Amino acid sequence: MNTQLSDRVDVERALGGAVSELAAALRGQARPAEAGASLAGTLAEHALTGSVRGCAVCLIDGAQAVRVVGVAGNTGHLAAGSVWELAPPLLDVLSDTNPIQRVEPSASALGQALGVDEDGELVATPLRIVDDAADHAGPLGVMLLVRDRPAPLAEEECAFIEDYSSLAALALHSSHHTGSQVASESMASFLNLVVHDLRAPLTVLSGYVDLLRAGTFGDGPKAWEKPLEMIAGKISETHRLVDDILLAARLESGAMPVSIETLDLGEVITRAAVRSEARAGLAAATIETKRSPQPVLAAADRFQVDRIVDNLINNAINYGGPSPWIRLSVDDAQPPAIRVEDRGVGISPELHSRIFDRFFRVDNRVPGTGFGLHVGRVLAEACGGSLRVESSVLGEGSVFRIELPAATTN
Ligand code: ADP
């Protein structure tokens, strides 16, 4: 048995692959059906344990058919994309609540196509969403595993297969929904699961890379400096993506508490400028602050407002051209506002509202997730305020405006 597959690293790799495909699908880079197929392929591939030589993921397609959406390993003549009649014994498998079932291979055309010989075994596991949402009463499909050595499946293999079948069901369910439907409970629990398992190893990785760069393990060759720097950069990019995914899951499940207090917006921008000094230094960016002579008080969540401003500064640096210039200012208006201004690439007028859509990105050459502005807007609204583009001109720069409810002074 390929025992390594039950190792955490492989599970994480599988989840990471599935999630980046999911993210691509949600960004609109792949059509949902294609994304579903490649997700199924990824999951099928990683569901292979040592005693399994081939795996196929099939989706129920209408009332009388199943469609093979992903295959991995040796699945005989069974190809992805083929459509099969939904007949016994598959029909029995799908109506049985048992998560792992044996199927007599010769009893079905599908089994024959998979090329299971008389010493072999066909195991079927229905793809069901565990915390079944109301719109999915029955299973979505079935995962078929071909085994050449029909010794009983080991307990850990069963657990592994069950985990993957529920994961596959969640992934397929999410990838076949678009827009607001994606914000379903199942999506939130899928993301939570993925993020939880990805954060810990990333933290360990970045810790080791930092130690290597600091020379804690002795001086490395000079030629290693650049690659290590690149690895560190990629790790922090992945961290950011994982954090964004976690935040999304929290926002979607409504588990994002806000704690409203009185904030002096002048202090907010001064602190933000200090926090971003290191990042600005790396990008040769200049950050100015322009406070109002009087305190400008708003009632909002300090932590969330800081997060929104940090994200706008990051964007102003990322999309600010070669030596970005950024000005943070406070507008003593009703309602009071923080403005984040840059002289960067600007945004064409028809995109001023679309950039707040989840995963929407204008230019994929700059690394990012297309998530920050969406999250910023949701957080501003959760504080009773708003986030919008005040003005932006292509090639000249942009002004983003966060309005917050005024605090009542006594
Ligand atoms: P990300 O930066 O990760 O792509 P955001 O949600 O923060 O995600 O931004 C969405 C898109 O809006 C960006 O991909 C970028 O094209 C555009 N954008 C955001 N901020 C600016 C800015 N200050 N200037 C120009 N374009 C911007």
Question: Could you outline the blueprint of secondary structure elements for this entry?
Answer:
Elements: H1 8-27, H2 32-46, E1 52-61, E2 65-73, E3 83-85, H3 90-95, E4 101-103, H4 109-113, E5 121-127, E6 141-147, H5 155-175, H6 185-213, H7 225-252, E7 260-264, H8 265-275, H9 277-282, E8 286-290, E9 297-301, H10 302-318, E10 325-331, E11 337-342, H11 372-382, E12 386-393, E13 397-403
Parallel strand pairs: 8-10
Antiparallel strand pairs: 1-2, 1-6, 2-3, 4-5, 5-6, 7-9, 10-11, 11-13, 12-13
This protein binds adenosine-5'-diphosphate (ADP).
Adenosine-5'-diphosphate (ADP) binds next to helix 10 and helix 11.
Protein model, in words:
By secondary structure, the protein is of the alpha+beta class. The strands form three sheets. The protein has a six-stranded antiparallel sheet. The chain has a five-stranded mixed sheet with strand order 8-10-11-13-12. A hairpin with a 3-residue loop joins strand 1 and strand 2. Helix 1 packs across helix 6 and helix 10 runs antiparallel to helix 11. The longest helix is centred in the middle third of the chain and has 29 residues. The N terminus is likely disordered. Bound molecules: adenosine-5'-diphosphate. The site of adenosine-5'-diphosphate has 22 residues, from helix 10 and helix 11.
Rg = 26 Å
What characteristic shape results from the CA principal axes? elongated
* Sheet having the most strands: 6 strands, antiparallel
Mean pLDDT: 78
β-strand amount: 15-25%
Structural class estimated from helices and strands: alpha+beta
First CA to last CA: what distance? 72 Å
Strand order of the largest sheet: 3-2-1-6-5-4
How many helices does DSSP assign? 11
What would you call the quaternary organization? single chain
Order of helices and strands: HHEEEHEHEEHHHEHHEEHEEHEE
Number of strands: 13
**Ligand set:** adenosine-5'-diphosphate
Helix content: 40-55%
Would you identify the regions where 5 or more consecutive residues have pLDDT less than 50?
Answer: 1-16, 25-33, 131-137, 177-184
